[in-house]
Amino acid sequence: xxxxxxxxxxxxxxxxxxxxxxxxxxxxxxxxxxxxxxxxxxxxxxxxxxxxxxxxxxxxxxxxxxxxxxxxxxxxxxxxxxxxxxxxxxxxxxxxxxxxxxxxxxxxxxxxxxxxxxxxxxxxxxxxxxxxxxxxxxxxxxxxxxxxxxxxxx
Length: 154
What we know:
Layout: H1 2-19, E1 36-46, E2 53-61, E3 66-73, E4 80-86, E5 95-102, E6 106-111, H2 122-126, E7 129-137, E8 140-150
Antiparallel strand pairs: 1-2, 1-8, 2-3, 3-6, 4-5, 4-7, 7-8
């Protein structure tokens, strides 16, 4: 009888290990029965020799919620702070929106306002003079990946 239970324990351990830091970590639906009605994806590019790339996706759902989803590639499970900043990536600029940090290479943030309290939605993000920047870690603010968004996107 002990032999029959052993595979179940092994299966449980294997599933626990495999499920940690999966691609769907931190991805939460913003509500019930919502449908994505607008979506725009931007390719994050590696800077400072980091090799970290990915995609920043802006979406608007059927309840008019705006979400920014960041999915990083070529990184590990480290936490990477993420921001929408004013100006182009080449110019750099102050933080406009503090996003949820990328943990296990993923960040999902429902966006309703700038950090200063100014309301912002999907359409206003598309007209923002801004860029997304990803930092190396909470203790190292070096930028590892960027992409221009809004008015700066080509």
